Amino acid sequence: MKGFFLCFLLQVFFSSADTLPGQQRHEKPGIAVADTSLGILILVNKEHKLPPGYRPYDLVPLEERYNRGIMNLLRREAAAAFALMCRKAEEDSIFLWNISAFRSDTVQRQLYENAVERNGVHRAERFSSRPGHSEHQTGLTADINSTHSSFSRTPQAAWLRQHAHLFGFIERYPRHKEDITGYGHEPWHFRYVGVEAAITIYTNKLTLEEYHGTIQETTRSPAR
């Protein structure tokens, strides 16, 4: 199994855009550049793309006891919050771990192209991001415990829904919000936004897109 993952990572590392014309074929026009100055509140989605090769400067490995994935890096603040959340969950006999955190745009390109080949563009894009559009590339996102839809019915998922915001994490792609986020429900995909923003988002049942819209409404100048 380790040999398989090593071969996969080597293949992805030596891949380039020139050898993956399929991604270029599926590229959409009119995409905005994600505002990296927003820090932990950066918005990355189907309409906002990270700069090519973007990689956060402060990525650190997650604590080994809370990680079961090869992709085990988060930004320093998010990694500390993730470990704290996992420790608190243990006090309730809930055991959490990362299975996929930071991904480069090169890795995401390979994953996206594989999904398109298996399922076609329309179905693939319900759950797979184009390279540069993945929240995982921000270093602020972790897939927790499982990527199967049945995870939503587990005690771990229930605990996360009730407590994750207290540690600065939000369920990024909630149920019944697909028309706003652009993605199907992913009960395992949690994004770090900081405690203040997470509590606001949780309390008002918002998506990150809606939260950004609220900020823009309250800060917009009449002179603009």
CATH topology: Muramoyl-pentapeptide Carboxypeptidase, domain 2
The strand order across the widest sheet is: 5-6-8-7
CATH architecture: 2-Layer Sandwich
Tell me the distance between the termini: 57 Å
Radius of gyration in whole Å, from Cα? Answer: 17 Å
Structure report:
A four-stranded antiparallel sheet has the order 5-6-8-7. It has nine helices and eight strands. The longest helix is centred in the middle third of the chain and has 16 residues, at 76-91. The chain has 224 residues and is α+β, with helices and mostly antiparallel strands. The chain has one domain (44-219): 2-Layer Sandwich (Muramoyl-pentapeptide Carboxypeptidase, domain 2).
Give the topology:
Blueprint: H1 2-13, H2 21-25, E1 32-33, E2 48-49, E3 59-61, E4 73-75, H3 76-91, E5 98-100, H4 105-119, H5 121-124, E6 141-144, H6 155-163, E7 169-173, H7 178-181, E8 186-192, H8 195-203, H9 208-219
Parallel strand pairs: 1-2
Antiparallel strand pairs: 3-4, 5-6, 6-8, 7-8
Please tag this protein with its features.
alpha+beta, Muramoyl-pentapeptide Carboxypeptidase, domain 2, two-stranded parallel ribbon, 8 strands, globular, disordered N terminus
Provide a compact summary of the structure.
By secondary structure, this protein is of the alpha+beta class. It has helices spanning 2-13, 21-25, 76-91, 105-119, 121-124, 155-163, 178-181, 195-203, 208-219; strands at 32-33, 48-49, 59-61, 73-75, 98-100, 141-144, 169-173, 186-192.
